[in-house]
Amino acid sequence: MTQSVVVQVGQCGNQIGCCFWDLALREHAAVNQKGIYDEAISSFFRNVDTRVVGDGGSISKGKIRSLKARAILIDMEEGVVNEILQGPLRDVFDTNQLITDISGSGNNWAVGHKVFGSLYQDQILEKLRKSAEQCDCLQCFFIIHSMGGGTGSGLGTFLLKMLEDEFPEVYRFVTSIYPSDEDDVITSPYNSILAMKELNEHADCVLPIDNQSLFDIISKIDLMVNSGKLGTTVKPKSLVTSSSGALKKCHKKPFDAMNNIVANLLLNLTSSARFEGSLNMDLSEISMNLVPFPQLHYLVASLTPLYTLADVSIPPRRLDQMFSDAFSKDHQLLRADPKHSLYLACALMVRGNVQISDLRRNIERLKPSLQFVSWNQEGWKTSLCSIPPVGHSHSLLALANNTCVKPTFMELKERYMRLYKKKAHLHHYLQVEGMEESCFTEAVSSLSALIQEYNQLDATKNMPVQDLPRLSIAV
């Protein structure tokens, strides 16, 4: 069994991480009722005897003593991390694996990347090595961060380069929260574009999620609750928007429900690594099968059921409807329409009591309405995990490598150009040591080249697919 380490950077990264660990503990508690430390739990948690000082306290099997998350928490402001350490999950995190400062990055990528990057490089490296040493077989680093601020975008992407240099064989999966148009950080287009260049060069897979999509999903849920269309009985242990459950603090702010949707995405993404299934998908298989070209590693995620994760008691979606939902605009965690764009590849990660025949039937049913690149017409990767999310009979996470990400990148570039043409706020960046105007021009060139790659793929849309002759085998 392999292990993964989660690195949560900045306010957004730590809040999403907090929700992820809470939900992961609930899932394992529902399955592992005897309290035995098994391989499933070891993939993301260590078992520690707190009575023993130092590394001697690690226990590889037997009864669960004290679970510690395989996590590193980094923020250049203390607020969120302190809140976590005073909350119900305080004992889950190893206090030796935290890095905080008091000044913050001031919504400036250059401060996060250039200033705090060099200042904390040795400390971060030491904690990464420590986490890696505590794993038997480290497979993946999950980085959670936002693109619009200073710490998440700047230090988060600095860390990515460090991981590539120090652990080149270990996969780097990045969950990146993109700012919405109405973002209150004026400099977010600069931060996002500068961070994008680093993601292009140093990540294995990026799951781009935009705040606006999450907000729209939560708004629809609220509308359905308030309209009474779907009933208004609150589920006592809802996993997305309820204020019930372990993390009471975690649901008071408007972003909490949005963060919980992202946490559920990560929960489903890692389900095959944590639980048994008739058709498991290794994390390495996601990268291998879904990323045909190095830079085209942006995967659009959709999660279903979404609304049944809410505070509304509604009957579970029919299985076939769940598959249809995964390809609809309303269920994408990025404002995108994959159905009317070009697929390079698609992964379907199913949880619960679902048969392989159900999977195949739905793929065959949906295939005619989806357009794949001519050279990868059978570009499907599937997995079945037998353990469903808590409180549900089944769920589906779809990951699409699809040209529908292009409009998000184009819109980001337009917002960036509006600021950059006026050289607005540029001096805040250029006064940081090591930051030059060439950093901006290189970053926007990198994004333009990425957009052009998607343009070239889109140009092949609707081209006839050649039915190549197959080798005949005599029986």
Automatic annotation (TrEMBL):
UniProt entry keywords in alphabetical sequence: Cytoplasm, Cytoskeleton, GTP-binding, Microtubule, Nucleotide-binding
PROSITE patterns: TUBULIN
Compartments in which it is found: Cytoplasm, Cytoskeleton, Microtubule organizing center, Centrosome
GO biological processes: microtubule-based process
Record bears the keyword Nucleotide-binding: yes
Transmembrane region(s): none
GO cellular component: centrosome; microtubule
Domain Tubulin/FtsZ 2-layer sandwich, residue spans: 279-414
Major localization class: cytoplasm
Keyword GTP-binding: yes
Any one GO molecular function term: GTP binding
Superkingdom to which the source organism belongs: Eukaryota
Protein name: Tubulin epsilon chain
Ranges where the Tubulin/FtsZ GTPase domain occurs: 49-277
SUPFAM superfamilies, per database record: Tubulin C-terminal domain-like, Tubulin nucleotide-binding domain-like
Self-association and partners: Found in a complex with TEDC1, TEDC2, TUBE1 and TUBD1.
Family designation: Belongs to the tubulin family.
InterPro entries: Epsilon_tubulin, Tub_FtsZ_C, Tubulin, Tubulin/FtsZ_2-layer-sand-dom, Tubulin/FtsZ_GTPase_sf, Tubulin_C, Tubulin_CS, Tubulin_FtsZ_GTPase
